[in-house]
# Entry
Amino acid sequence: MTEPERFDIAIVGGGPAGQAAAIALEGHGLSIAVIDEQIRPGGQILRQPPAAFTVANWLADRSYAPLKRQLDRFGQLKEVRWLGGHSAVGLQAGSIVATGPDGLRNIAADRILIAAGCQDLAVPLPGWTLPGVYAAGGIQAFVKSQQLLAGTRVLLAGTHPLQLIIAAQIVAAGGTVAAVLFAQPRAHMIAALAAQPLTALGRASDLFAAGTAMATLARAGAPIRFGVGLSALTGRDRVSGAVTSAGNVECDAVGLCYGFVPQSALPRMAGARMTAAGPAGGWACVHDDWMRTSVPGLYAAGETVGVAGAAAAAAGGELAGLGIALDLGLLDADTAQRAAQNSRRRFARHRAFASLLDAAADPRPFFPAPDSGTIVCRCEDVEFGPLSERVSAGGSANAVKLATRCGMGACQGRNCEPTLLRMISAAGGCDDVGFTARFPARAVSIADLLSSD
Amino acid sequence: MSATRITRGVNRGGPIAITVDGIRIECFAGETVAAAMLAADHAVFRADTRGQRRGMFCNMGVCSECLVTLIAGGPHVRACLVEARDGMEVATRD
# Structure
């Protein structure tokens, strides 16, 4: 491995949390590396078009305005070395291994913030491996960034309200939405939000955005249905339809939208204490009031500490930045506490709303049923039937992985782990750690590893 | 053709071309290899062990379903993260 490049602080993730932390650390003369898999900063919420594009009215909806202002400010920071197009594949306290266009690089920093974001929960059902079936977030990213409609007739299905926003963005871009299907009854969602009316009203802008999206879809004639579950996706070489509890739907692209799980490979690899993330599954990084993890020198913010949306991520990122400044002796305790007051209030408020949303979007009673031939582990083509048999024999996720290859492929179990853990739990087993996180967190070519020693 | 480019209010980079499994695909500078492929109706990235056609899934670098080989750059490249360059030769696992 080449000599490490040294920075005072390294941040994994250039989304709202990573940006907010870097901004909070401005003015102290620190060197800050920000590593992100996307070429341009913004995270998934502000997934930017390529630099070669100009897009009039990009994410013009008012709800994106504060995030866009933060992005502009981040872009002006002099202390930041932007490492876009890089994947952090290895992490321990004090050091990160990243891959990029020029192979592997070793980044040393005494303080590391993981703000790695989340991913769509992968939900296996018959036909979900057909070309044209996507994670709903993938379809949205195509619209935001590549200015591409994933199909001429897009079906969105799941339990998460984000699918309304995605559908409305497709319609606004000139696309056609076949339907938006919520597996849960409408009353179920309303009851979840009504359980804490003040918290819900505290995020009135989100409720308003959902309402606006519903109006947009109604004008476009795109049906929104509640209490309609998916049974199968059909097609020969690509998806051409869906079988649902309310009949068949024709479509040439499908976005599955059952929720989001933190990207947790890096903190798990570093040995940070984790906790069950929420009803959609996955693992959230445990942290204190200053976003310190259980590993000295390692901090976490954004969806890495639990999926709660961009506003919570930004507030948490500010706290992490202030916490790092405090720990480096750049701020005294009183100054840091005063500076953090506003961020703490926002962090708590947005997280409270996120837990309401979790309850409203809870996918657990509404998952589609796989059949025995349904692929659960996409990388290794492990089918539900054989997997189920092995799970019923008992054992941990790691034991099932060894016996079946589930989770052993290029994605390292990102897609199948939540499903496998649900299966283990349903079979009466208990697995409180999931797969052991191993280097590298993303597939790396052997050539990169060889050329770097 | 299923995937389509949004044109209203969008100016893309200059026209370029790549080849995917030897077939020429016209696209635009700045587009990811994945976007260029989908817009050219090349939604199949591989065949699985049962011989079934498989597409990409997450479009954010996580799922590894869009791995392609760049003839000049090597295997295991996530098509959703890499920008197409004029003359780039891409091979799928199909």
Notes: The radius of gyration of chain A is 22 Å. Chain A is about 35% helix and 20% strand. The CA atoms of residues 94 and 110 of chain A lie 5 Å apart. The longest strand of chain A covers residues 103-114.
